[in-house]
Amino acid sequence: MKKFYVVFLAMLLLTSCNGWFFQPGSPPPTPFLPATNTPPIVSATPVVIGGSATPIIATSTALPSNTPFNAITNTPLLILTNTPSATVSIPSPSVSIELLGCNTSVDVTHGMGEVTNAFVVLKNTGNVELTNLKATLFALDEGREHPDKTVELTFIPVAYQVTIKLTVDSTYQEETPIQVEVTSDQAAFPRTGEPSCRNIGLFAPNPDALTTPVPVNP
Q1: How many domains is the chain built from?
Q2: How far, in Å, CA of 56 to CA of 47, rounded?
Q3: Is residue 168 part of a domain?
Q4: What distance in Å separates the CA atoms of residue 49 and residue 46, rounded to the nearest whole number?
Q5: CATH code for the domain of 117
C-alpha cells in the first residue's frame, strides 16, 4: 500500500513541472459555433412537371439575333401604271397665203385694158389634206370681173405648197390695194391683203410650174 502512494506522488510531481494539467499538444476543446445552414444544391436535372416518371423538359427556340420580335413580312403593293392611250389627232386645216408680188399687163383677149396679175403661194400648214380649193383675188379699184380672178385647185397635201397667178381688171397706172381669199372643203380661211402690191419684175415664177404642188421649203 505504501508503494502505491509513492508512485502517485511521483506522477503529480511530473505533471506540475509546466503547470498545465492538460499537456501541450493536446487539442483544446472546440469552442461553441453557431449552426450553419446547409447550402442548397442546384442540380442540372430538369424540373419534372406532373407525376409522370418520364421528365418533361421545357425547351424554347431562340430567334436569330437579327430577327425582330413579331416581325411582319411586308407584301409588296401592286403599283398600277397608266398605259398611254393612242393619241387622237384632231383635224386642223390651215393654209398660209404669201403674196410674192404683182405686175401689170394689157388684156386685149378679153377686151380689157390694164390688168393686175398677183403671184401667190398657198402652203398647207395644217394636219389634213386640203381639197377643192378656190383662191380669189380682189382689188379695191376693180372693174369688170376677169376670168382668172379665181383659180381652183384639186388638192394640196400636208406640208406642200402651190404657186398660182390671179388676175383682176384694175385702173390704169394706179396703186391697187388687193386681197386674196381661200376656201376649201375643210374650211374658209381669212383673207390676206396688201395696201399696194409691189412689182415682181423679173422674178415672176415660171408659168409652167404654176398650180403644181411641191414640198414646202425647209
Answers
A1: 1
A2: 8
A3: yes
A4: 9
A5: 2.60.40.10
Asked if the model's pLDDT at residue 32 lies above 50, the reply is no
Residue 25 located in a structural domain: no
**Is the pLDDT higher at 204 or at 35?**
204
User: Considering the domain boundaries, does residue 102 fall inside one?
Assistant: yes
Q: Which cell goes with 1?
A: 500500500
What 3-state class would DSSP assign to 96?
A: strand
Answer whether residue 143 is part of any domain.
Answer: yes
**Residue 43 pLDDT > 70, yes or no?**
no
DSSP code string of 112-179:
-SEEEEEEEEEEE-SSS-EEEEEEEEEETT--SPPGGGEEEEEEE-TTEEEEEEEEEE--TT----EE
C-alpha cell at 114: 390694164
Please provide the average confidence, as pLDDT, over all residues in the chain.
78
Lowest mean pLDDT of 26-30, 107-111, 187-191, name the range. Answer: 26-30
> What's 18's DSSP letter?
S
pLDDT for residue 22: 45
The mean pLDDT value for 115-139 works out to 97
- Show the domain range for 185: 95-196
| CA–CA dist 60, 69 (Å, integer) | 15
Q: In what order do the strands lie in the sheet with 95-106?
A: 95-106, 114-124, 160-169, 214-215
